[in-house]
Amino acid sequence: MRNYIFILLWCFIFCACSKNETSIQLQIKGDITDAHPRIVTSDSTYLLTLDSTGACKIILPAMQEPEIANLYYSDIYGGTPLYILPGTTLSIGMERGSVKTFDGESADMCRQLNDFRLLRQFSLSGDDVLEEKQYLAKLERLVEQCNVHLDTMKQDRKFIELLKKRMFFHIYSDIPDYVTFYSFRTGDTAYIPSEHFREVMVRVISDEDGIVNTGMYSMLPSFIDILCPTVSRTDYKTKLAYLQGRFKHARVLSYVSDYYITGYLKNEGIQYLPEVRQEYDRLVQDSAMKSKFDAYCARALKTAPGQPAPDFSFPDMDGNMVSLEDLRGKYVYIDIWATYCSPCRAEIPYLQKLEEKLKDKNIYFVSISVDTNKKTWENMVKKDQLGGIQLHCGKNPKFMDDYDIPGIPRFILIDPEGRFCGARVGHPSTPGWGEYLAELVK
């Protein structure tokens, strides 16, 4: 009899858990070579494995309450919020980094979460000329107006309450921009946030449960950078000390620790991995996040100083193929850029001066464009009379992966033997970089 009761109890628990499981079906159309999708929920990160057609299915563990999760196409693209309704199926259609369709019981809620009209309606714009007191009062009024608007929506109340909380974070996420641009707009170069202003910022990010349940992790670094300023943007140890004293929720601590430690390695170089490995494993509890970090490190180690640089071969302006092997015997300073990239274009005058300064030295200057429109690249090279060796790569995921290039501009230095001096080196505009190169190649 006792065994019979135990079996019934086990079956009840199993059925209850199964009932609250959520099935997510993802279909990505077109080229999926650069797709590395993942879903971040309140309890974990789930790395998704696509089949040859760009499809996958994942069953999320049972949860008692709805929440807002985020779907990422890859590291380059921002997250798409998803309304996770326990015990339902959600189908998502994507093309590249953009979600095109939602289908399922929570589809309407997902569409409302991604309604940019709502985000624009309750966003601040150009208000960084207001004094702090006026600005904070305007934020409060905007939250009140947003809540009134959301209360008119005919949706489940749990969804409305989550959306209110997410919109609260959306509205207050403008604060770091206010701090950044206030001095510029007003000319008050001595401005630093008041103690009261900082207290408001602390209150916002102290709602850790709210951040986790609405998936608003991405707002945290910009707040932390103001509340915990450092002399160097790579001073991750000061950041980690602040994080451990501020955050208690394992999900929040995992996210921000991963952000700053990974950022440190990306900025300073993978050779510092032994320095941060133990601290990373202690602070980051998310197994999928760790797997993603390990995958990044494995890729980055291939581009560490002294490692052989993978060969490439791309056409120049005349259609002639130029490979890295062709450039052996000299240093090769590579600029990965695109015509549509404003920061890339801003580096061009500095690069031209550097090319002129070192034109007779032991170095090649190679600019590799990732423009998908080759004609646009050709027109700009001709119009602006760009020098050096101009090559067109276009859309080439293998090259971007071989050289671990998640974004542009990127500058790379290869030695005369074809080995990496650095996969992330100084920009032409970086103070002291020109002098360093001149000394290296003299």
TrEMBL record:
Annotated keywords: Cytochrome c-type biogenesis, Disulfide bond, Redox-active center
Record Gene3D superfamilies: Glutaredoxin
GO biological process, one term: cytochrome complex assembly
Ranges for domain Thioredoxin: 303-442
Coiled-coil residue windows: none
Subcellular localization: Cell envelope
The keyword Disulfide bond belongs to this UniProt entry's keyword annotation: yes
A GO cellular-component term linked to this record: cell envelope
PANTHER family linked: THIOL:DISULFIDE INTERCHANGE PROTEIN DSBE (PTHR42852:SF6)
Name of protein: TlpA family protein disulfide reductase
Organism of origin: Odoribacter splanchnicus
